[in-house]
Structure formats: C-alpha cells, structure tokens
Amino acid sequence: MQLNNILGNAIRWFSATPERALERAYRAAIKIKDIEDRHFNGQKVSARFSDYGESVIAYFQTEVKGYLQTINMALVEFKTSRFFVNLSNLSKNQPENREKLLEEQNRSLAILDKLKFIDEIVSKYKTNFIEKDTRQSLLVDESEDWKNGKGSELVNVKDSLASKKKRNGQSELNLENEDLNSKTRVAKATEKTGVLPRSFLNTISRIRQEIDPQSGETEEEVIKRYRSSRYKTAISIKFILLLIIVPLLTHQLTKTFLVSPLVSNYLEKNPQIIFINRDLEEEAFLELRHFEEMLQFRNTIGLSTLSLEEIQDRVREKAQEISEEFRQKGGNAIANIFADLFSLVAFAVVIATNRKEIEIVKSFLDEIVYGLSDSAKAFLIILFTDMFVGFHSPHGWEVILGSIAEHFGLPENREFNFLFIATFPVILDTIFKYWIFRYLNRVSPSAVATYRNMNE
Predict the structure, then answer these.
(1) CA-to-CA dists, residue 122 to 48, 71, 125, 264, angstroms
(2) Which run of H or of E encompasses 278?
(3) E strand segments, 62-194
C-alpha cells in the first residue's frame, strides 16, 4: 500500500512537471517585463532606451541575462517533460465529463497565453543586446574607422555578425546584413588608391568635422565610442585575467587537495617505486657519490676523524634522505600531469562559455596591435622573431624543453630536442613571414618597409 502511494505521488509529480517548468519561465519573463516597464519605458534593456550610466546598464543586463537563461532551461524542461507526459496519456481514454473537457481546454489556453507572453519577451533579445549595442556604438561611422586604419575591427564585427546568423531570426538578420553590406561597400571604396595620400585626406576630413556647425551628432558619437571603448577594455582585461587565474587556481587546488594525496598514498603502498625515470636515478646516484667523496676527502685532510663504519652510516642516512626526496619529485611530476589536465579542462570551459568575450578580446587586441606606430610594430616583430627563431633561439628552446620534461617527470631526450629545434623554429619563421606578406603588408605597408630597413 505504501509503495502504491509513493508511485502515485511520483506519477502526479512528473505529470505536473511541464506546468511547473512553464510557470518558472513565465515568472522569469514577468521579471524581465517589470524591469523594462520600470526603467526602460517598456522597451528592451538597452542603453538606447534610458539615461542610466554604464554600471547601471550592465547591472540590468546581467539580471536580464540570468532570467533569459532561466527561461531557456525551463522551456527545454517543459518541452521534454510534456513530450513524455503526452506519450503516457495516449494510452488513456479521452475524458467524457464535460467539466473535465472544459478544464483541459482552459489549461491549454493558459499555456498558450503564457508561451505567447514568453515569446514576446524573448524575441527582443534574440540578438544579444550587449553585443548589439556595442556593435552599434562601434559602427557609428565605419568609413571613418577605415580611414583611420581600424579596418581590422570592422572585419571582426563582420565575423561576429556572420556567426550570429545561425542563432538569430531571419527577419532581423536581413536588416543587419543589408546594413553590413552597405557599410562594407563604403569600406572597400576607402581601400582604393587615391590621387592624394590617405593621411592628407584624413586630416582634411578631421578639420571639416571640427568646424562643421552641424556636428552635434558627432559629439554624441564620440561619447558613445568612448564608452564602448572603455567597456570593451574592461571586458577584455577581465577575461584575460580570468583565462590566467582560473587554470592556475584549478591546477593548485586539484594538485593540493585531490591528486597529490592520491599519488602519495599510492607511493606509500609501493615503497619499491623510487625513481620514475633514469635521469632522476642518475641524478640521485651522482648526489650520493658526491656526498660520500666529500666525507672521505674531509677525513683524508684531517677535518674530521670518522671511521669507516661511521662513514657508511652517514652514507646510509643520506641515501634514505635522497630516496625520499626523489620519491617526492616523482610523485610531484605525476601530480603535475593530472593537475595540468584539470587546468586544460578549466581553460576549455572558460573558452567555451565565453564566446562573446573572445570576440571582444580579439577586437581589443587588434585595435592595440594595429594602433601601434610603424616603428613599434617593426620593433616587436624583430624582437619576437629573434627571440623564437633567431640565431640564439636554440639555447632558449633547449631550456624550455628541459623544463617541460622535468615538470612532467620525463627523461630528457637529446635527439628529440635537436629534431624539435631543427623544425619548429623554421615553421614559426614561415608563419611570421606569411603573416607579414599576407596581412601586415596590406594593412600597414609602411610598417613592413620599416621592418625591412631595421632588419637590414
């Protein structure tokens, strides 16, 4: 009897799952609607529909983003559970009672009304509002950006719009694509070689904007561009720090509290395991031999008066210390392997869950790199090429490969090191030259000329 009650309660709970999930999504949509009505005049949460500062807008956008995630998860739960509930209801007879029929019809109408309301709210945010506002403020005047040498940023925006095409509604995308195509034509027009130098035309255009009496919109555009740049810089720095801190914390925490105790326990149960590779064994023997020879030397010159038995006792104690030390080294190397795997997983999770931030960081880095002067670009290119593929780079690669082998407890292989040094820097050099020829020569030919002069 008790089992039947438990099964009955479980069935009723599962049958009510679609309504619970839909109610959760409906409440989240109501909260978004409340934010829109109270703070954004019934419009979507965006800087275009309010006079709030950047921090307030970011707060509301974070709230809406959380509610949208709740809606998406609840709708997935609603669709899945409703599918199974409908399958279970197929075997049941249709209710003959008129009151039950009316009740089911009313329930269906209520579900449709809630879904319609949810769709109205979610449809406003089909295109991610943060990226869209940033894109609009960044693309206030694309032709000016191309003239000022910031074409790479527009290319990144175009790529981000292309990636959104798979996620957004077709009608909204058509408008975006038309806008993008028209602005791309402007960008291509500025790439054509003119009679006058481009810098001279840029100067004339800048003076014309400054003395234009109808430049009220220009000031607003400059403010928007500044806010967007500040927002992009903050997001980029936070994300870069996140990429560094999260894997490091994951490595230390997993190694300290998870992997190292397991490895130490295994080594304690297997005391015969002392050395995990031959290099550690030779290093331990060399240290022990050096200690024994030092004792004999001090005894020979009269600095100590130790008998042969005492010397052997000292050597035996030193051997115990060395064995424990190198057992810990081996365990530390094994723990590094697993901790690095956890760090790699954490890094991949951060990358996979922050695609929008990656696009912003790419645009931020492109703006920094291509915004440098020609001399600075040439200096950085020469610095990195000489460091990694230059004449003295083999010594640095040997140190790097040796450190990696020691980190993972691997024996150092001289043949592999020589093969790596003979091939990998050549591949890097080819990539550098291709990048200079393919991209930098088109974006900044004067930087390429400066690089060649400095390199000669």
Answers:
(1) 18, 9, 5, 53
(2) helix 278-300
(3) none
Distances (CA, A) of 148 to 216, 272, 370, 375: 21, 69, 11, 17
Q: Is 125 helix (H, G, I), strand (E, B) or coil?
A: coil
Q: Is 277 left (phi over 0), alpha (psi -120 to 50) or beta?
A: beta
Identify the DSSP state of 214.
Answer: T
- DSSP state at residue 415: H
pTM greater than 0.70:
no
pLDDT tens per residue across span 391-439: 777 888 888 998 999 898 888 888 998 999 889 988 988 888 888 878 7
Q: Contact, 22 vs 6, CB < 8 A?
A: no
The Cα–Cα gap between 74 and 66 comes to: 12
Q: Judge whether 409 and 330 are in contact, CB under 8 Å.
A: yes
Asked whether the predicted pLDDT for residue 18 surpasses 90, the reply is no
68 and 128 Cβ atoms separated by less than 8 Å? no
DSSP string, 360-410: HHHHHHHHHHHTS-HHHHHHHHHHHHHHHHSTTHHHHHHHHHHHHHHHTTP
Q: CA 64, 69, 71 angle in degrees (round to 5)?
A: 95
Task: Compute the residue count for the chain.
Answer: 456
Q: How far apart are CA 408 and CA 336, in angstroms?
A: 6
Nearest Cα neighbor of 161 from 128, 189, 190 is 128
Q: Which residue has the tokens 């001279």?
A: 200
- What the block records as the tokens of 450 is 């400066």
Residue written as tokens 């820097």?
425
DSSP string, 258-275: IIHHHHHHHHHH-TT---
Report the 10 Å Cβ neighbour count for 370: 18
